[in-house]
Specification:
Helices cover about 75% and strands about 5% of the residues. The protein has about 250 residues and is mostly helical. The protein has one domain: Arp2/3 complex 21 kDa subunit ARPC3 (Orthogonal Bundle). About 40% of the residues are buried. The longest helix has about 35 residues. The protein is globular.
Length: about 250
């Protein structure tokens, strides 16, 4: 498909505006859940990774990070203090774009290379889901002192539900369209991991003061596998139909 520079620049501007609106309108891009937040702003960034040249995808990642920084300076309380550091607010979002680009390229290269490549992609996503949910239940058990056997059983049920929803979402689609929800899901999980790792590295003491515990790693693992999985599945459900629709428009024009 031939690139149209004006169209790419216009689409980048639209997505950048959407990112800023989602950043500063309360409970739209950042949905507060206790001391944590459910982040949805990464979705338009990921759509840009699919539809735009790399340089524009990085622009969207920078706008995402800059908006997060400005919002943190505005709030300047709780966990938002961590995001006043550009190494927590901006750098992870640029790394997130880079990882997403290579995930897209990697899974695109895998798809169709052998007879059951779609099964391999599904199995990998299922494995990531199971491992994430299992380790989150273990982290919650260690942090809260709850019964580990009960939490592991709940984790097993939750993994089954999430994998079933993922299968139901991709079932009946063309094989090439399995690429989009899979990359959206995995890239979204990587966004959560990268951001939480940056917080751990650059704002560990803030976490200790907020959570009143030295076991901040366990808490972050629990957040990554709970909030992270929800964000990932929302990215797949919301992002996939938008990408498919915009791809059709790009092919026509």
């Amino acid at each position: 498909m031939k690139r149209n520079p004006i169209r790419d620049l216009t689409l980048t501007s639209v997505f950048a505006a959407i990112i800023l609106v989602m950043t500063f309108v309360p409970q739209l891009g950042f949905i507060t859940l206790g001391i944590t937040e459910l982040t949805l702003i990464h979705i338009p960034v990921l759509i840009g990774v699919f539809l735009l040249p790399k340089r524009y995808a990085f622009v969207l990642g920078f706008v995402f990070g800059l908006g997060s920084l400005l919002r943190a300076l505005q709030i300047n309380a709780g966990i938002a203090i961590a995001f006043t550091n550009p190494l927590v607010s901006i750098l992870p979002r640029l790394l997130f774009v880079l990882v997403s680009i290579y995930l897209y390229k990697g899974i695109t290269a895998l798809e169709g290379k052998f007879k059951k490549s779609d099964v391999a992609i599904f199995s990998f996503v299922a494995l990531v889901t199971i491992v994430g949910v299992f380790y989150s239940s273990s982290a919650i058990a260690d942090f809260a002192g709850w019964n580990k056997s009960t939490l592991n059983f709940i984790a097993l049920l939750l993994s089954t539900v999430l994998i079933s929803l993922y299968y139901a979402f991709i079932a009946g689609k063309k094989k090439e369209n399995i690429l989009y929800p899979s990359v959206l899901l995995l890239s979204s999980l990587m966004h959560t991991i990268i951001v939480l790792t940056a917080i751990l590295i650059f704002s560990r003491q803030l976490l200790v003061d907020l959570l009143l515990t030295e076991n901040v790693v366990g808490v972050l693992v629990a957040i990554a596998a709970t909030n992270g999985l929800v964000e990932a599945f929302l990215a797949a459900v919301v992002g996939t139909p938008i990408i498919l629709a915009l791809k059709q428009v790009q092919e026509k024009y």
